Amino acid sequence: MPSATFHAGYAPVAYSNLVTVETLTGARVVTFADGNVLKLDPGGSGRDVTLPAEADSAGLRYMIINAASGAENLHVKNDAAATVGTVSQNEMAEFACDGTNWTLLYIASIALG
């Protein structure tokens, strides 16, 4: 099975890495090698998370889960450093790209165990 495949009108799908789990130590840039679900612990401080360039991301969606143990936010930004949404502790959000803009679809409260 390939590590990634592309279909007309759809985003890349990483078969080998559907979920990315990471504790951050600084700002994070999302790449196509990441899973479409990112469970990120900000690691003690608010962190910037930058989504891929819009022109390369038509049809792509990312679910970002804030796995912080404290009141630490993930500031999700586009590649021009504009904030698309902020994901607080115990929240998850989904972002979608139409090839021109990243859009925050929703934010939901969650309970991590």
Low-confidence stretches: 1-10
Spatial gap, N to C terminus: 32 Å
| Mean pLDDT over the full residue set | 88
| Order of H and E elements | EEEEEEEEEEE
Query: What is the global morphology?
Result: globular
Alpha-carbon Rg, integer: 13 Å
Written overview of the protein:
- Mean pLDDT is 88; it is low at 1-10.
- Helices cover 0% and strands 44% of the residues.
- Strand 1 and strand 2 form a beta hairpin.
- Strands 3-5-7-10-11 form a 5-stranded mixed sheet, with no helix packed on it.
- It has strands spanning 4-5, 13-14, 19-23, 28-29, 37-41, 47-50, 61-66, 74-77, 83-87, 91-97, 102-109.
- By secondary structure, the chain is mainly beta.
- The chain has no helices and 11 strands.
- It starts with a strand and ends with a strand.
Topology (SSEs and partners):
Elements: E1 4-5, E2 13-14, E3 19-23, E4 28-29, E5 37-41, E6 47-50, E7 61-66, E8 74-77, E9 83-87, E10 91-97, E11 102-109
Parallel strand pairs: 3-5, 4-6, 5-7, 6-8
Antiparallel strand pairs: 1-2, 7-10, 8-9, 10-11
Summed up, what is this model?
This protein is about 0% helix and about 45% strand. It has about 110 residues and is mostly beta strands. The strands form three sheets. Strands 3-5-7-10-11 form a five-stranded mixed beta sheet, with no helix packed on it. A four-stranded mixed beta sheet has the order 4-6-8-9, with no helix packed on it.
Features:
mainly beta, four-stranded mixed beta sheet, 0% helix, 113 residues
